Amino acid sequence: MTTTSNTPSEAEATIGDPVVAPTPNDDRRRRIVKTRDFKPTDAALLIVTMLSAYSIVWIIFDQLTLLSGEFGFVVCTLGIFLALYWFVNLQIYGRHMAVDRLLGGLVTFGALCMMLPLVLLVYYVFAKGLPLLSFSRFTQTQAGVGPLSPISKGGFLHAIVGTLQQVVLAAIMGIPIAVLTAIFLNEIGGRIASSVRTVVTAMSGTPAILAGVFIYSIWVLTFHGYSGFAASLALAILLLPTVTRGTEEVLRIVHNDLREASAALGAPDWRTVWSVVLPTARSGLVTSILLGIAVSIGETAPLIMTVFGSQVMNLNPFKGPQAALPLVVYQEIKLPQKSAVALGYTCALVLFILVFAIFIIARILGSAWLQGVLRSRKGGAKGGSNAAIEEDLMSVALAPAMSMGLPRDDRSLNPDWGGEE
Amino acid sequence: MTTSDLSEESRLVATSSSGTNQSGSANPMGMEAGELVAEGVCAWFSGRLVLADVDLHMERQRVTALIGPSGCGKSTFLRILNRMHETINGAELAGSVELNGEDIYSPTQRATTVRRHIGMVFQRPNPFPAMTIEQNVLSGLRFNRIKTSNKNDVVEEALTKAGLWTEVRDRLSNLGGALSGGQQQRLCIARALAVRPSVLLMDEPCSALDPASTLRIEQTISEIREEVTVVIVTHNMQQANRVSDTCAFFLSENGKPGHIVEVGPTTKMFSDPDDPRTLDYVNGRFG
Cβ separation of A418 and B178 shorter than 8 Å? Predict the structure, then answer.
C-alpha cells in the first residue's frame, strides 16, 4: 500500500476534475436497450399478443374443431401465447431479448400459478364466511344453539378461548424445548447432534393424527379424560420440529465472526448465545416461532382425540372437554343443516382472522421498528439530542416492520454491511 | 464474582512492574500495559504441525509487529496469545505463554479471564449488529459482569481512545452496524479497550479498510501504546515500519511449519537485518 501517505483531502483531490457532464439533449448519449426494461409499448405488445393468442385458440377450439374443455384451452393459449410473444420480440428486439422474454413469461406464469390457489382460498373463505359474520360471533357461545335456532344465534367465543388456551400452553411447553434443541444443534453440536437432527427431521413428517393417538393413549385414557391440556400436549409435539429446524436455520446464518468477537471479550459460551447470537437472530427467531404456532393453531386431527369439542364455554383447560376453532369448523360443516354449514364457514373465517392477528402482533413485537423506538426512548432519557432520535427512527423505519419474509433484514445478521468503501 | 476469580485476576494483572510503568497513575481508566512472553510455542491443526518452537518477548508498552507471508502461522500465533486458538476444532499446542509472569494456559486459569485481559481486534470489523454503539462499547463489561459507576464515562473514554468519539457522540443509540467499515473497526477497538485489557492483539486490523481509515487506526495504536501492550499482525510492510517498535519475521518454507526467522527492533529489521531472507521480504522481493 503505497498511497497511505495520502491524507483524506489529498485522496479526494486525486479524483480530479469531472468530464463535462452531458446535457439531457446531448447527441453523444446512446440509447441502451436493457433486457429488463419494460416500457408502455412493451405492455401494449404483451396485451396484444395475449389477445391474439386467445383469439387464435378460440377460433381453433370453438369454431373450426369440436375440441372442448377449459384445461386444454388454457394450455393451448399459454403455448401459443409464448410462441407468439417469442416471435414478436425476435422481430423487434432480436434473439437475446426474445429468449429472455420467453423464459421470463414462463417463470411469471409459474409464480401466478402458485399464487392462484392461495388467493382463491382466501377469497372462498371470505365469500362463504363473511355474510354470517357479526360482532356477536365473537361474544356468544354455541350454548343452547340447536337445529331449529335462528341463524343469528350462536358464536365462537368458547372456541376462540379454547384454541388460544391450547396454543398458548403448547407454545409454553414446546418453544423453549425447541429453541434449546436448536441451540444445542448449532452452538454445541458434537457426536449426537447429527442423530438428534435426524430425529427432529423425522418428527416433522409425523402425521398429526399420530400425535393425537399418542396423547389419547398415554394421557386421555389414563383417567385424565378429555381436556384442553391434552390437546396442547399433542400440539406441542407437532410444533417442536418446525420451530427447531427454523431456529437452527436462523442461528446458522449468524456470522461466526460475532461469536469470536464475543469470546475474545471474555464472554462464556452461554453469554455469547444469550447476548449476541439470539439478539442477532431475533427477527428470524420470531418468524420460526410463528411458523410453529401457525402449524399448531390449524391442526384438527389431534384435537378430535384430545379436547373432544364442546358447545359451551369451558375456561379450565385442565379439566373437561373444550372447544377449538378448527374442531368447530369440522363439526359444523359435517352437520346436515344448511345454517350449521354456513356457520362452519364463518368459524373458518374467524380462525383465519385470529391467525392473521397473531402474525401481525408477533411481527410488530419482533420488528426492528419497535426495538428502535424503545432504544431511542432510552437514548432520549440519557440526554441524546432530538435530531439523533429522529435520525434513528428514520433508519429503523426503513426496515419493513410487517414483512413476512424469514430473515427480515439479512444485513442485520452480517457484520460487514454498510461500509462506505 | 467469586473470590477465586478475584485472586486469578490479581495474579494476571500483577503489579510487579516496579516503576517501569508510570502510566498507571497518569491514566484514570487504570489500564496497565502487560508483558507477554511466549516460549517454545508449537501449534497443530488436525495433527499437522503449523508453528514450530516460537519464542517471543512482547514488551510492556511496546508495539510488536508480526510480519511474514500468508500461511506462515502469524495469525495462529496471535490467537494462541489469548487462547482463541483452542476454539478451533482439532487445534492443539505446546509451549507456554506468560502474562506478567503468569502462565495463561495453567489448569487453574480460565480462558474467559485470560481473554478479558488480553483483548483482540479481528481482520473484519465485527460489531454486534443487534446492539447500539453504546451497547457495543459496554458489551465486554456486561459479558464479564463488571460493574461501573458511570457507564457514560467508560463509553466516552473508550471511544475517545479509539478516535471515534467526535464522530458518533450524537448517535450513541444508533446500531453499530450502520457505521462505515473504518468506523466499525474503531468501534471494535473501543469495545476491546473498554474492559481495560493489559494487552491488545490485532489481527490485520486494517486489511479490509481504505488508506484514510488505516491511517486513523495507526494513530489510535500510537495513542494507546502507553496503556496497553499491542501485538499486531500485518501484511503491510509500511504499516509495520510506521507503528511498531519490535518486529518478528515469521516464515514457513517448503512446507515446513512456520517459525520465527528474526526478531529485532523495527528500524534494524527494515534497514540492516541479520538474515538475508528478512531483507528480501521487507523489500518486497518475495512473499
Answer: yes
